[in-house]
Amino acid sequence: MSASVRGVGRAPGKLILLGEHFVVHGAPALAVPLLSRSVRVEVIRAPDAWRVTRGREHLERMLTTLGEDPTALSLAVESTLPLGAGLGSSAALAVALVRALRLAEPADHEGVRALAHSLERLAHGNPSGIDDTVCTYARPVWFVRGSRPEPLDIPAARLPPLWVGVTGVGASTREAVAGVQRFKDADPARFEGLLGRARELAAAGRAALVAGERDALGAAMNANHALLQRVGVSCGPLDRLVEAAREAGAEGAKLTGGGLGGAMVAVAPPGLDLEPALQAAGAARVLPPAGTDTTGGAA
Ligand code: PMV
After folding, report:
1. What is each CA distance from 159 to 13, 21, 140, 272, in whole angstroms?
2. Does the annotation mark 239 as catalytic?
3. What are phi and psi of 144, to 5 degrees?
4. Across residues 247-259, what is the average pLDDT?
5. In which band, very low, low, confident or very high, does the pLDDT at 126 lie, cut at 50, 70 and 90?
6. Which of 80, 105, 203, 243 has the most beta carbons within 10 angstroms of its beta carbon?
């Protein structure tokens, strides 16, 4: 069979600014797309043209889940998103694949998201859906599990500078989510208190993001990091990067995504370069804010 392209799909990564983990238990979360980094999938109508360096088995399972015949298709996958770092690579892959297969109209965000969510279940077990939502909408999103997501009308140019520090420590979201569940089971009343505080911080952070108030956003992020430490999903490498970003002048910093490794995010004044401080504190990679990221955003 000659190889012809059936479709191409692309999706950005994501940064959770407030509410990861607590979102699994019903609190709202606030997330923005990581537009400078993306996953691109090309679906080829030939079984012998695979262009992936790893994860082929998982991709074949994704195709089967979507009702496609993996023996009739090949995939070419390219990613400028660091993998397994809490930056949405698995959700971006799911969204890009659904788009490339043309299983929903490109503008039908809810249709794309529902299919991508079924793929995220393969990767994470019981995901809240925030990752696939942000990667689909490619816009800031206010997300409450089980409710229709609320895309926020904030143009990318109006977002504050957001720096990402990747620890280089591999982490399993599934394990981190299970750890928080154990914390909750051991002391439900204490967890309920933290959950209430997480709700307040998400609301405060949303108002600050919409108003462009970096100080208030940073304060909410700092307090949210403390909650994540309490439920046991931070770690030394993350805490060191968070601390270094704050000391270097960031208004706020916290882990982002599943934690136990992965990445952190910091909000900082325009023009402030956090890279030296993050590198000195052990970052394996630093992703500068959108617009200044010239290190690999051209997927
Ligand atoms: O997949 P990650 O590491 O970006 O984390 C997703 C966010 C969690 O709240 C930890 C899990 C979820 O399903 O919402």
Report:
1. 16, 23, 9, 15
2. no
3. -125, 125
4. 97
5. confident
6. 80
Average pLDDT, the chain: 93
List all residues whose CB is within 6 A of at least one atom of ligand 1. 16, 20-21, 23-24, 86, 88, 127-128, 130-131, 173, 177, 257-258, 262
Report the candidate in 82, 75, 77 with the shortest Cα–Cα distance to residue 34: 82
Contact 177, 233 (CB under 8 A): no
Query: Could you read off the pLDDT of 239-251 as tens digits, one per residue?
Result: 999 999 999 999 9
Q: What one-character DSSP code corresponds to residue 51?
A: B
| Model pTM above 0.70 | yes
Q: How many H-runs (helices) and E-runs (strands) does the chain carry? A: 9, 9
- Please state the atom number of ligand 1 nearest to the C-alpha of residue 130: 14
Residue 275: closest CA among 262, 285, 265, 267: 285
Ligand 1 atom closest to the CA of 233, numbered from 1: 10
pLDDT above 70 (res 297): no
H/E stretch holding 256: strand 252-256
